[in-house]
């Protein structure tokens, strides 16, 4: 006679393996309620077509679907996509052809569909105060409009040491985050400045203001070791003003070897979703908190097992930015480009 306990254990194991359902991430809208944040755009590149512009969209901030048949949406763009909405209601995107290019090109769009060139900015990297050895390298320019000051801040990373055959990481560890301010993204205030006064590498820095605080979302670009366990992780620093001084970064939000963080508020506006790439093009991770001071936890996803994943993105997406959309903007994008579900 079969042991009834054994039978129960088998049933439990089967349910756990095939039908387990963990709690859903916070921040979703309850049935019958209206979302504060109605939809989202992910402007990104792909593993196969690095540095070019693609779109994916979502209505819940968790499940993302590609537009335009997974083809480019704007042929002229090159760079690591980053979009900011200005006080005029227009959207601005910054990019550069390569890290070695001396120029940052900025495009503008009223609808995220049609883009036109707005300006070209060539930073003088030899005039950065307290950074005499800055190399002619510009990595991943990013934009943020700061309403209190009425200015855009554009950030990017620039190294000051070449890598060597024996120490390729020296180049990455030497990256420092620079910034420049502008009222209109056509004229820029003075030479670039260093954003942080810490003596370790940072890249992929974007700025956000929540309540009375500014948050610098960054990648700690030191290599991880027993003595620098935070290396190659996503972290956050905090300041009372746009240009700092910023605190030392908080504990890591992501595991090691993650980069290109992008932040969105949840549909009900009560949680934050922080996405980041496990490079090179392996997967995307998602960490969640109810405020930017943490604590953060990692959601389960990108396994392509629907009964386990709590979020999903198209395969092979790479660096980019996520922004909120109105329902009308979402419908216009889907109508123009078509959606693949």
From TrEMBL:
Iron as UniProt keyword: no
Protein name (record): Glycosyl hydrolase family 43
GO MF annotations in UniProt: hydrolase activity
InterPro entries, A to Z: GH43_arabinanases, Glyco_hydro_beta-prop_sf
Keywords: Hydrolase
Superkingdom, taxonomy of origin: Bacteria
């Amino acid at each position: 006679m079969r042991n009834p306990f054994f039978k129960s254990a088998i049933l439990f194991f089967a349910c756990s393996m095939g039908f387990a359902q963990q709690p859903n991430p916070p921040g979703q809208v309850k049935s019958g309620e209206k979302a504060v944040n109605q939809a989202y755009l992910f402007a990104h590149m792909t593993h196969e077509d690095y540095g070019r512009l693609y779109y994916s969209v979502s209505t819940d901030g968790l499940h993302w679907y590609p537009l335009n048949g997974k083809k480019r949406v704007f042929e002229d763009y090159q760079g690591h996509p980053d979009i900011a909405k200005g006080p005029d209601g227009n959207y601005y995107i910054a990019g550069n052809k390569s890290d070695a290019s001396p120029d940052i090109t900025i495009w503008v769009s009223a609808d995220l569909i049609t883009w036109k060139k707005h300006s070209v900015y060539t930073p003088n990297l030899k005039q950065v105060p307290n950074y005499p050895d800055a190399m002619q390298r510009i990595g991943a320019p990013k934009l943020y409009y700061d309403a209190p000051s009425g200015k855009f801040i554009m950030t990017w990373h620039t190294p000051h040491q070449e890598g060597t055959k024996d120490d390729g990481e020296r180049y990455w560890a030497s990256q420092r985050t620079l910034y420049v301010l502008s009222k209109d993204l056509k004229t820029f205030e003075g030479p670039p400045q260093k954003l942080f006064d810490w003596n370790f590498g940072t890249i992929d820095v974007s700025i956000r203001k929540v309540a009375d605080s500014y948050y610098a979302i960054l990648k700690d670009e030191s290599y991880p070791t027993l003595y620098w366990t935070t290396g190659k992780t996503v972290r956050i620093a905090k300041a009372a003003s746009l240009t700092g001084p910023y605190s030392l970064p908080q504990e890591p939000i992501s595991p090691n070897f993650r980069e290109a963080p992008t932040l969105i508020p949840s549909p009900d506006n009560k949680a934050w979703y922080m996405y980041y790439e496990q490079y090179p093009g392996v997967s995307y991770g998602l960490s969640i908190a109810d405020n930017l001071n943490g604590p953060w936890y990692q959601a389960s996803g990108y396994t392509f097992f629907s009964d386990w994943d709590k979020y999903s993105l198209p395969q092979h997406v790479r660096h980019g930015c996520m922004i909120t959309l109105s329902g009308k903007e979402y419908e216009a994008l889907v109508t123009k480009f078509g959606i693949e579900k």
